[in-house]
Write a sequence for this structure.
C-alpha cells in the first residue's frame, strides 16, 4: 500500500529498523536506528512490532504527501512537526488523510526523529533487516537516503481507529550536555593513568565529523603510554577509539567491524540511544561504571522496551 510521496527529503532521511545483528564476522555493520528507544516507542504508538522499519530523520526532516489514509507516530528529538501547516503533536498516534502534507521540521533538541507508519514500512529485507546502510549501498530504498519523488509503502492494515498517547514521564529529554556511562575498554592498559583520568574527568565536544558511522570528539588530549596502533580487532557500536591525535572517536551504528586504534572505553549499551541524539557542538561527559553495572542497566532497558506497548494510554477522539 502506497502511503507517502516524498516532496522534500530532508537533510539525511533513511529507513531504519532494529538493525541486522549477526553479520559482523562478515564485515556487515549492525546499522539500525541510532535511537532504538524512540524507534520502538513510535512503533508501539501505531501498534506495530517495536522493531518495525521507520523513517529516521536527521536535523531537518522531510516533507511528505499522504497517498492513503494512514496512522503514524513521530518520536525522538523535538522537531515540532506540522500537518497541512498546523502544528502536530509528537509521542502520540496521528491520523492522516489522503493528500495531507506532513512536514517533520527542524530539530529544536536532539538530532533524530522517527516516523512510524501503522503496518510498518514495506520493503525487501536484506540480511534480515530493512535498515539502510548507505556506505554499503544496501537496505532501505536502493541503499540510499530518501530523495524527492520516492514513494514509501506500508503493509496493509484493517483498522485505523484506536489512538494512543505515550506517558509523559517516559518521554526522553535531550539537551546539549550529555552524561554517558562507559566501561573500561580492552586496551585501557595502553593509556597512561593520567590519560584515562583525563578521559573520564573532561568534557568532549562533538565535531562536525559526526554521522551514523561515528563521532570525532574535541577536548583534552588522552595520552598513550607508547604506540597508538594495535593489530586490527573487533569494533562494536559504542567503542571509543583513541588514535595518534589523542582525541577520542565514538563508533556508532554504521561503524566498520574492525579497527586498528586502542579502545579506552565502551559506551554502555543502554546509553547508546542518548548518544544517538547527539549533534555537532554538543558536549559529552563520560562516567565510568563497572561491567556488572552496565549489565544491570541493559537488563532494565530491555525490560522497558519489551513493555512499551503495555504502558500506552488511549487517546480521546
Amino acid at each position: 500500500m502506497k502511503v507517502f510521496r516524498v516532496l522534500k527529503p530532508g537533510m539525511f532521511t533513511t529507513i531504519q529498523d532494529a538493525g541486522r545483528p549477526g553479520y559482523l564476522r562478515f564485515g556487515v555493520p549492525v546499522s539500525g536506528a541510532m535511537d532504538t528507544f524512540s524507534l520502538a516507542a513510535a512503533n508501539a504508538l501505531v501498534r506495530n512490532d517495536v522493531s518495525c522499519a521507520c523513517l529516521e530523520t536527521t536535523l531537518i526532516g522531510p516533507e511528505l504527501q499522504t497517498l492513503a489514509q494512514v496512522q503514524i507516530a513521530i518520536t525522538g528529538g523535538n522537531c515540532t512537526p506540522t500537518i497541512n501547516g498546523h502544528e502536530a503533536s509528537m509521542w502520540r498516534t496521528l491520523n492522516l488523510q489522503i493528500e495531507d502534507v506532513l512536514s517533520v521540521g527542524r530539530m529544536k533538541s536532539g538530532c533524530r526523529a522517527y516516523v512510524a507508519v501503522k503496518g510498518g514500512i514495506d520493503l525487501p529485507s536484506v540480511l534480515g533487516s530493512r535498515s539502510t546502510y548507505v556506505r554499503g549501498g544496501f537496505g532501505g530504498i536502493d541503499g540510499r537516503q530518501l530523495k524527492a519523488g520516492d514513494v514509501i509503502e506500508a503493509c496493509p492494515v484493517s483498522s485505523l481507529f484506536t489512538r494512543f498517547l505515550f506517558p509523559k514521564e517516559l518521554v526522553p529529554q535531550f539537551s546539549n550536555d550529555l552524561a554517558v556511562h562507559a566501561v573500561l575498554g580492552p586496551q585501557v592498559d595502553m593509556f597512561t593513568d593520567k590519560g584515562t583520568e583525563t578521559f573520564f574527568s573532561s568534557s568532549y565536544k562533538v565535531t562536525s565529523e559526526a554521522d551514523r558511522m561515528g563521532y570525532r570528539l574535541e577536548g583534552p588530549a588522552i595520552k598513550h603510554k607508547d604506540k597508538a596502533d594495535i593489530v586490527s580487532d573487533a569494533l562494536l557500536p559504542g567503542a571509543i577509539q583513541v588514535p595518534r591525535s589523542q582525541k577520542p572517536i565514538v563508533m556508532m551504528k554504521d561503524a566498520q567491524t574492525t579497527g586498528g586504534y586502542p579502545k579506552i572505553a565502551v559506551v554502555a549499551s543502554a546509553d547508546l540511544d542518548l548518544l544517538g541524539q547527539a549533534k555537532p557542538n554538543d558536549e559529552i561527559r563520560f562516567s565510568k561504571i563497572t561491567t556488572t553495572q552496565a549489565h544491570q542497566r541493559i537488563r532494565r532497558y530491555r525490560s522497558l522496551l519489551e513493555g512499551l506497548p503495555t504502558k500506552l494510554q488511549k487517546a480521546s477522539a
About this structure: DSSP finds four helices and 22 strands in the chain. The chain has two domains: 2-172, 177-303. The chain has a mean pLDDT of 96. The CA atoms of residues 190 and 226 lie 7 Å apart.
